[in-house]
């Protein structure tokens, strides 16, 4: 009975886990790809130049104003380049987390199927499953038994239908 509930919990967890992969990857990315001191210095330089530019009148000191504007634009391009590089790495982490979740799910289910392929999870009277007895007992072949493969498929179906009804 414990194994039946355990498989149901695994199916529920692995059906909702992909939804949280952006959150998981966000935390991983924050730890791996921090804003560098160089980027922080560039940002402070941009702020300083903008305050300096605001103190200058455009009409009185046209050349000096646009010289500062070119410096600001150059620094902003550098900052954007560094931010884009960090964003690309974050996107790769997000994809890796999603793929990892699916691989772990597959490995868990395969290991359960291979571990319990010879013994049924639950044995009931064979008459209850008369037309579908062999399908339900797969891969054990024991009449009246509920095989792990059938139980995983049943749990998956129930969880997916429940999610659709709940609108998740």
Overview of this structure, please?
The chain is mainly alpha-helical. The protein folds into two domains: 17-115; 119-168, no CATH class. It has six helices and two strands. It has helices spanning 2-16, 21-32, 37-54, 62-115, 133-137, 148-166, and strands at residues 122-123, 145-146. It has a two-stranded antiparallel sheet with strand order 1-2. Helix 1 (2-16) crosses helix 6. The relative contact order is 0.13. The model has no long low-confidence stretch (mean pLDDT 91).
Give the gist of this structure.
The protein contains six helices and two strands.
Average predicted confidence as pLDDT: 91
Note the run of SSEs as H and E: HHHHEHEH
Number of helices: 6
**How many E-type strands?**
2
Trace the largest sheet across and list its strands: 1-2
**What is the rounded distance between the termini?**
28 Å
**Could you list the spans in which at least 5 consecutive residues all have pLDDT below 50?**
none
Number of domains: 2
Helix content: over 70%
Q: What share of the residues does DSSP label as strand, in percent?
A: under 5%
The value of Rg in angstroms is 29 Å
Categorize the overall geometry: rod-shaped
Report the sheet with the most strands, covering strand number, pairing sense and barrel closure.
2 strands, antiparallel
SS-based class: mainly alpha
Question: SSE layout and pairings?
Answer:
Layout: H1 2-16, H2 21-32, H3 37-54, H4 62-115, E1 122-123, H5 133-137, E2 145-146, H6 148-166
Antiparallel strand pairs: 1-2
Helix pairs in contact: 1-6, 2-4, 3-4
């Amino acid at each position: 009975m414990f194994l039946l509930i355990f498989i149901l919990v695994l199916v529920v967890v692995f059906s909702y886990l992909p939804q949280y992969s952006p959150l998981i990857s966000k935390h991983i990315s924050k730890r791996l790809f921090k804003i560098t001191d160089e980027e922080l210095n560039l940002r402070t330089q941009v702020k300083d130049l903008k305050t300096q530019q605001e103190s200058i009148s455009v009409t009185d000191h046209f050349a000096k104003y646009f010289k500062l504007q070119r410096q600001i634009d150059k620094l902003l391009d550098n900052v954007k380049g560094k931010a884009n590089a960090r964003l690309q790495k974050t996107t790769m982490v997000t994809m890796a987390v999603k793929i990892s979740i699916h691989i772990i799910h597959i490995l868990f289910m395969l290991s359960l199927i291979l571990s319990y392929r010879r013994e049924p999870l639950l044995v009931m009277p064979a008459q209850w499953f008369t037309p579908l007895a062999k399908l339900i007992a797969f891969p054990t072949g024991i009449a009246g038994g509920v095989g792990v493969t059938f139980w995983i498929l049943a749990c998956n179906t129930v969880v997916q239908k429940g999610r659709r009804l709940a609108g998740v």
